[in-house]
## 1
Amino acid sequence: MTKIYIPLDMAAVAMGADRLAVAVAKEAAARGQQVEIVRNGSRGMLWLEPLIEVETPAGRVGYGPAKVKDVASLFDAGFLTGGAHALNIGVVDEHPWMKRQNRVTFVRCGVIDPLSVPEYEAHDGFKGLKRAFEIGAPAVVEEVTKSGLRGRGGAGFPTGIKWKTVADCAPGQKYVVVNADEGDSGTFADRMIMEGDPLSLIEGMAICGYAVGASKGYVYLRSEYPVVVKVFQAAIEKAHEAGWLGKNIKGSGFDFDVELRIGAGAYVCGEETSLLESLEGKRGIVRAKPPLPAHVGLFGKPTVINNVLSMATVPMILEKGAKHYADLGVGRSRGTMPLQIAGNVKFGGLFETDFGIPLGVIVNDIAGGTRTGRPVKAVQVGGPLGAYVPVSLFDLPIDYEAFAAKDSLIGHGGLVVFDDTADMLWMARFGMEFCAIESCGKCTPCRIGSTRGVETIDKIRNGQDVEKNIELLKDLCHTMKFGSLCALGGFAPYPVESALRHFPEDFRKPALEAAE
Amino acid sequence: MAGAAPYSDERAREIIAAHMSLEGPALPILHALQAEFGHVPESAVKEMAQALNISRAEMHGVVTFYHDFHTSPHGRHTLKICRAESCQSMGAEKQANDFLARHKLEWGQTTPDGSLTVEPVYCLGLCAHSPAALYDNEPVGVVDGETLDAFVEEAKGK
């Protein structure tokens, strides 16, 4: 029986993985070959998807990107024993893209069957939770604090401090909420973890619940991810069956349940307080802080809200100890960053690395430059509210503080590359338009500012009082940045200001040329 | 695609009742109603307000806040085309505009035969395969004009 891996990851499915799996099974049956097809997560080499892996004595040999039309020739070439074929990329673990990484959060993603509890356990799964039970709740909080783990949602808030605040609240109903509303363009790490290693998120939530005294956890998932819904729901059931969720988990006396909730297409619900409103069944309108959700959160109870990646990293921190994690990275950016390389690139995908790697190395070397083959013009780092970084700043290391010093952000670690055909005035306009569409409407700077922003950029585009309107736009950005209630309005100026700062020529084109 | 069932107050009440044990049940109920009827009609909003003991205005506010919920029927199939930055970096904006022009549609509109509604979406998480789209629940990477046109044809057939 030969084991074959074909990803169920949404990106692989979007490139035909489901049809490929059917074709491989059919061809194997027709040829009388005994195969077992495992639907794994993605290894992150997305330009190779769908990537078929075959288990051989030498290791897992990869073939990609494989199409249905390649199936017969793969069998002819003896791919079940690692035979030579134009799509053969060799042993996947030895691939240069994999070898350059330091996989911590993504160590199991693409490797194991995401829905097999025994496989998860065989790859160190649930060791973190077991250790949590051994050392007790206060020590778990201490461990997470010492690891230096920070939120992956944008602001980079220390996870341990959040947990301690909730743990210190009086006992009673508390909640663990995972923000899986990954709405930023160029980000897909949360999706990949939830499809490729969902049990790590469930384990992280259970550890958190145990540490802070919560018995209920919610995952708030955006509705644009239909594959995650299926995989994660199944993972919750598997964890229950195996006794890792539910009453008295493994005889610890600790009860914990996880429920998956689906959003409804509102970007602002990625902001933690509007996410809570949405979970409560209301309009996703931002709450003023304080009170912090840690004190008054879901249904008015103390609540930990963490991003998927922070939560999925927690089991490893508990298993290996805080120091192991803290020793990775640079400065105050501890650990690793799963970078999501996207947009106009040759080799797009997920690349997990220690903090500190320069931006230019990622774009030119790891991502192989643009897919169109044209020169790079800009990279938007950290989602639609992130800054456009020009080639002249390619020395910047991936580090929260280094980016902040250049008025930019790392956010979620998404990189969207643009070639020299990109019109930065248009991208700035889109940034404002997006904010106008997605604003929850509670505060004036965001609600009105974004609409006026689009109008002002249109005037600049039409060549109307260009310099005066650029000044007005800057002023508007300033108001939004410092007057908005949450990060949607507060960060929307980043793409606009960075486009203005680094690409001033795009704002001063003759009117006719600037038109579409 | 789900959502062919004709609306009845009785069926709506059943769906609502099935979710009332959840904490904060409004969004799960709305998803379930839309899956059943293809949209969330005004009468269902009224039933929900009653069951949740909130005003109809408040319930209406919830339904209209979210892009996913719609109060009138859409086409039998839905094509969501990504307009976010990553897809734009690979020319999605022009591609989508050309597509809409070819089929004489605007964002959010349904083809005259009622077969397909075209909606914008802001990121499908398929950013390494830009430009991307979602046809009903089927993700598609590296789409071109031809792929998009094929969905219009496919929708017509069913």
## 2
Amino acid sequence: MLNRYPLWKYLLIAAVLVLGVIYAMPNLYPDDPAIQISGASSTLEIQQPDLDRIEQALAAANLPTKGTELGANGRSGLVRLVNRADQLKAQDVVRDALGRDYVVAQNLAPTTPDWLSNIGAGPMTLGLDLSGGVHFLLQVDMEKAIESRVNVYQSELRGLMRTEGVRYRSLPTQGNTLQFGFADEEQRSEARRLISRQYNQFALETTERQDQYVLQLTLTEAEIAAIRDYAVNQNLTTVRNRVNELGVAEPLVQRQGADRIVVELPGVQDTAEAKRVLGKTANLEFRLAAEPDAARATTESFPFRSSQGRVADVERSIIITGDQVTDAQANYDENGRPQVNINLDSHGGELMNRATRSNIGRGMAVLFIEQRQISRTVTEEVDGVMQEVEVPAFVEEKSIISLATIQSALGTQFRITGLDSPAESSELALLLRAGGLAAPMHFVEERTIGPSLGAENIAKGVTATQVGFLAVLVFMIIIYRAFGVFASIALSFNLVLLIALMSMLGATLTLPGIAGIVLTLGMAVDANVLIFSRIKEEIFNGMSPQRAVHEGFDKAFSAIIDGNLTTLLVGVILFAMGSGPIKGFAVTLSLGIVTSMFSAIMVTRAMVNLAVGGRDVKKLWL
Amino acid sequence: MNINRTINFLGLRKFFFGVAIVLMIASLGSLVVKQLNLGLDFTGGALVELNYSEAADLEEIRATLRENGWGDAVVQNFGASTDVLIRLASDDPDLGNQVADMVKRTEGGEVSVKRVEFIGPQVGEELRDQGGLGMLLAIGGILLYVSLRFQMKFAVAAILALVHDVIFTLGFFAFFGLSFDLTVLAALLAVIGYSLNDTIVVFDRIRENIRAMRHTDLVEIINVSTTQTLGRTLATSFSTILVLLALFWFGGENIHGFATALLIGVGIGTYSSIYVAGGLLVTMKLTREDLIPPQIEEEVDERP
């Protein structure tokens, strides 16, 4: 029988429609502006009295609230505000009311009804251009990463040769190449044997110059790639830890490309604070304290970070750096004195063991290294003219945060005692845990979108969607009459389905994304237009209405598939290649094509079948 | 919309090719001479968007910036007389905030910062490369897909029509000095998708008709096919243009470039799928055999 759908198809379409409506629904509930609080340390709990105190403070400051909530784990609390514009003021009020032990951040709290969130339905995530917030792109300085690794290798190799009794002379490092000089060939081949047995990171080469037998060790390509990869991942972890310190709800920290990290902080307006925390390019070094009679050339002296004027001498060679710390916890020893328990990775543990087992009783210093970005002026040729150009540069500031005596040989787990106060131990633990950066980073991109612009973008996007949608409906009904009504219903279905799918997939909606939805609405009717114009054509060629409908759907199919697949291909390429706005657009475009094929072919067909199928139709109202 | 008479599109194909070639030369010319007005996304620099409680005095803002050594800043209204956009070439991530503070202090009325952006020059450069590569990949993918589903000559015709559309849109942006940013690039890629869709529908009908109609010459088949699909082409383009106009008028300043690029692209894409793509097939001498391989008679080989 022509133009009859089996029952299961109707049921399937109905089921998809119901699911679509349910999962699209959360988007009807706009988020509440909110203030989120959490303890600065993990032991601090947030209690109902804290929230009551905040509410009173806010009421006193004339900032209306909608209510408060305690976090499920007792570690955070939420105050819902009435006005978005109050958020910044409210944040200050809450900060004053609670004091320094709490992290106070702006947030957006979902208002999705419980029954919807229980089945996993939630609104679409809004991009920063719609919600407001800060976006940073950080670039990891790879040259520094490799340089510092080369330095670590250099001290390791020196130690190795010293303990094995090979006499060498250090020659200056050239880029990725370490150089050692030897008095005779035997020494050199001994060194070569030793190194190649334990290290496969180097390509070894020998040369002779000025009566010296030189051994050159160049990092292999694979090792350099590993260092780069490690540097980005280590920095990513560190940035994540630091972002958590900011207490921002739903931050995004992601690797982008080979050497970049994206940080997105929705709702944050205070860029200075965020940049200060993120840009804190700190690292740590563990070094032995210098022996009193050590040669000046092998030692360096650094000031203490906490007490001004106090200085200590430490050895130049580094035992390990902070990025080899896997965990650090502040607590107390048997006598109730503050200490920090440290875990190292296995490589770090081995190095630590080697350095400490013969140095029991000596001091070991933990050095804090801060890299601050400054602008340096250099003369450079710009467009053929010599000009003074400002370039970002780094200054390194090193200071001692702890100097403790080695009690026994240390391994992957050890503790640092002799700290002055619990505050010092918890800060040290935090710094160790937050991790040093494997390499310094600088900001290469920064976008701050104010909340008012976000709201404006949403409002305009919604208006454009509504107007565009209505225009298409009117147009379709004018040119295809009854069938235009079918197409309109299918198009509405398509819009619901697209929103539901985006919400379910957790896709982020951006302004270009909204543009993509609008464009999809315009293009989605194409499949219907193809089908309807084909039906008209078949009727014109003298076919019966029933037959024409059947043929129309059939014959238009290959054109619909070819046309849409090629557009989908473009969408997928856009998604894979693009970043930011392009990606947001690609998502809605691609999903829109998929949903529109379903709605334009299946749903329209179902409606047409219900209307004309199995009936003796003389004339189609088309 | 039913057209009962076959329109002789290809009769005028020399004329339309001429038009296309003139348009291409003009577009390439303006691209070379005037060049694209690349936006912040591609050039790098700092951008500040401010909202004033009253109509902003652009001259005063410019003066303030000049005093502080930023004489080359671009200051313009953005959508409304109360909204101001400031653009500077810079490689200092903090400059945007500094400028915002600087300008905020000068005005009497209330000023709020709507957005501050900084893009490093290197990032911009990469985006440019990435965008170009994306475009090439898209074209390559399409070439492959159309070659497989149709035939090589169709693919080449489709790609040439696409290149025509893209170059024209780029030329348009260059000629009128419209800002070319990432959203415009996205729009351009969407134009590729859209215009291809259009072309494919026409091609699909040409393929169908070549198979169904025997003993008719190619020009006739293409004319018939284009006529048959004309109603659909116009209807779809019209509905797309309707929503794009909605975006253009109601979507706000940030989406203007996007909507403009698509409006131009969809317009020229519709034109090119009607006149350029089909005509190219004739120029490349598409034959029935390209779509239906002739049966090779086995006996031929066996004879000495």
## 3
Amino acid sequence: MKKIEAIVRHFKVEEIKEALTEAGVKGITASEVRGFGRQKGHRETFRGAEYTVDFLPKVKLEIVVSDDQEPKVISTIIAAAQTGQIGDGKIFVTNIDEMIRIRTGEMGDEAV
Amino acid sequence: MPANDVTPAPTTQPFVAADIAFVLIATAMVLAMAIPGLALFYGGLVRRKNILSIMMQCVSLTGLMSVIWLLYGYSLVFAPDLPYSLGFVGGFDFVAMNGVLPTNSESGQTIPAVGTIPRMSHFMFQMMFFIITPTLICGAFAERLRFASVCWFSVLWGTFVYCPVAHWIWSDTGWFSEFNTTNPWCKAFDFAGGTVVHITSGVSALICAIIIGNRLGFRQEPMPPHNLTYTALGAMLLWLGWFGFNAGSALAANPLAVAAFTATHMAAASGLLGWSLMEWLSHGRVTLLGACSGAVAGLVVITPACGTCSPLSALLMGIMGGAVCYLACTRLKNAFQYDDSLDAFGIHGVGGLLGAILTGVFATRMMKGGTEPLGLIDGHPEQILYQVIAALVTALYAAFISVILLKIIDSSLGLRVSQQAELQGLDIAEHGEEGYIFH
């Protein structure tokens, strides 16, 4: 099993969710996060005083899938989240040792 | 009762209904500058943990200063000189509204008058200036002063700074009063309180910022305004209320009020442009906060001059005000590193001083009437000297008394909240309430 974490733009979340649902993904966890990548943030000016805002607001999606679903999920996210502009986000993939559905006690791929 | 049996009341009193109505409306407009105008303007500029504390200062000073004004404030400003005070301050003739309230006798009711309005409406109009002046200072010590100290400082400051200075400028016997006919040694023009309101409050604000010290983390962490939409709405209310502030100072619905009204608007408009232009040149873009700050700077600069200068001069004064106050709030503040949190000195102190001097340049009989030349452009350059003397004496006096008051309060009550309270925010630490309870 793999956990796919995608840091994406706010306005793309709905589109990504629909594409993933269509691709067979059963569950997504989303959270509001703040961060920066290579481009850093932007500058704000208040009465002549300048501030650098490095941490920009993004949404983090967490999706756990079976190993064979991984390539399709990743390509789906890229297709839906891409604008081509700086700040489109990142995808991280990690291995998951175990997964348990609390309601039934099912484990592994059964629980996905 | 048949109509011809009615004995007419004595009609010796010169009241004009239009003037009374105008001054009452102007009074309410000036109140709208302090609350909600200044409360929103300052409220948006502080961090979210201090929004209530600054609004509390605006609203509670409205209550506190009103009571002081009734008890003795009005008297110290507008009563004849206190005996042996040599014109320093008014006496106690009008204490507790004595001589302001109507009196009844067998010959009928007598209502004290100022010009064509009852003295009571003059009392109310001037009260609003007494409220807003110490409230302006709150911008300098925002986010760190104890609430009790704010109250004590404001009452003492109103008594020992505002009342004498207003007496000098506006009473019939004042040192710098243009109404002083008995001993007119330095007649400075201050139509609506550039010196009385803005120089006194602005200079005292600087003293407060220096003596109280910088906020924790000043210049080490960003302290951007937490809600500029409040600030913009507050600035717009200030602009609106300033018509009452300046035009109302004519104390009558007359052509002078119209001239002051027009000059006020033109200065605000061009002040906005002046500040924005400086931002454009320095940063390549203009900000809403800058536009609002510039409008307020223009309004400050025109306040002493609005009864004596033409709208075109007002336009020039506004642009200069916007540009100079921009430099004061950025370059000057950075150079000396004092934490005038919301730029009370940068806008009111610097704008007030500039306005006082420019009044000596642009005052003209074309607007004010009469035959005497008034300012530099009228062929009376000495007026600039009078303006500078009045402004400097006022500034030095306000600074000196502020230092004394702050030292007294610091050694008795303590000025500043604890570090923990400052980090927590004054809303919870001082008042036990929270501005934004939705998360």
